[in-house]
Amino acid sequence: IGDFGSCTVPQIQFATGFDNRKETSFEPVDQTSYPHGSAQNIDIITQAMCDQLVNTCGADATAKATCAAAQSAADTATAKTGAQADKFNAVFGIQTNFAAVPVVSDQGVTLGVGKSATDAASTSAAATDAASTSVAATATAAASSSAAAATSTASAADIGNFGSCTVPQIQFGVGFDSRRETAFEPVDQTSYNHGSADNIAVITQFMCDTLTNTCGADATAKATCATAQTAAAAGLAQTGDQADKFNAVFGIITQFAQVPVDGTNTAAAATASA
């Protein structure tokens, strides 16, 4: 996917509450590498991030090409839905599930999962026609909508509410804080402002403490973070496998296990250790 220079791998999140918005919108996860406010149009965010690779990060040609491919991928999903963020992130090997986040209009009205404002308007018109034709059809539609809403909130309920902070995520690589060696650090330096460390426990403890001390996270989120700490500790020490295990608890699939450690492939090191 390329070398992103002084910046982290681009990643976009989708939710309500960014910049005090009522509606769902997009914004870069790492506000240090990609300092940009939220927007309902993902193209604004993707363009800013790809421009940043050229103007500030010192990214190589491969990274720039990957970002362009991610921009195109985002545009293939339904506009103004989390699926666009998922498509963008997937090009960089980051698996997210923002498609499960219900779309909320700028009036604060929940439109449903995977529905843009245009889709919602069409759905509303169809529902009105159905109501004119049959009261029973309207009742069925309402029941279906309720079921969809329950399904869409299950994912967030599983891992908790992180308050004013983003979902914790750790990255693994070389070059953090001008290090020559591989190290760990939080992806979002705005929510979790901590430098890099060779020992992932330093990072995980800080991030979980931040949920309590700063973010205003709920009990479920704190418990999820504790589980993620345990999962990371179970990975092969000082390898990307630990970051992958931590991230996976939050439903974020990464492939940092493939990052070589001091010239040694993590998978090979794990086999040798076994």
Give a description of the structure.
- The protein is mainly alpha-helical.
- The chain folds into 2 domains: 1-159; 160-274, no CATH class.
- 48% of the residues lie in helices and 8% in strands.
- The protein is built from 9 helices and 6 strands.
- It has helices at 42-57, 61-74, 82-91, 117-133, 135-159, 200-215, 219-233, 240-249, 266-273, and strands at 12-15, 25-28, 102-104, 110-113, 170-173, 183-186.
- The strands form 3 sheets. A two-stranded antiparallel sheet has the order 1-2. It has a two-stranded antiparallel ribbon with strand order 3-4. A two-stranded antiparallel sheet has the order 5-6.
- A hairpin with a 5-residue loop joins strand 3 (102-104) and strand 4 (110-113).
- The protein is globular and about 50 Å long.
- It starts with 11 loop residues before the first strand and ends with a helix.
- Residues 118-154 and 263-274 have low confidence and may be disordered.
SSE layout:
Blueprint: E1 12-15, E2 25-28, H1 42-57, H2 61-74, H3 82-91, E3 102-104, E4 110-113, H4 117-133, H5 135-159, E5 170-173, E6 183-186, H6 200-215, H7 219-233, H8 240-249, H9 266-273
Antiparallel strand pairs: 1-2, 3-4, 5-6
